[in-house]
Amino acid sequence: MTTTDKANEAKLKLAHIIWMILIAVIGASLALGAIKNQQTTNTKQIKQQELTKVGKDVFQMHQEQQLQQTKDTKDTMIRGFDRIDESLKEIQKKLP
Known about the structure:
- The protein is mostly helical.
- It is built from 2 helices and no strands.
- The chain has helices spanning 3-51, 56-94.
- The chain starts with a helix and ends with a helix.
- The mean pLDDT is 85.
């Protein structure tokens, strides 16, 4: 290789390095922009949710309704198990 070839090869490698750095900077800029956009979106959603908060009395009423619904479900399940127990007792009576 001549010195001219070596110089041209060095220039080509330098150009490749510069392009890789430029592409890396562009990629990092796009990623940073996407992160900032998502952060802004999340902030807007948080502010929107703060506006839709309900009062303490409404929350308490909802909580009481959920508790009553849980109790009703529990009672229904217990009645169902009682019926199953009664059915099993009837079946046992019929067995020799």
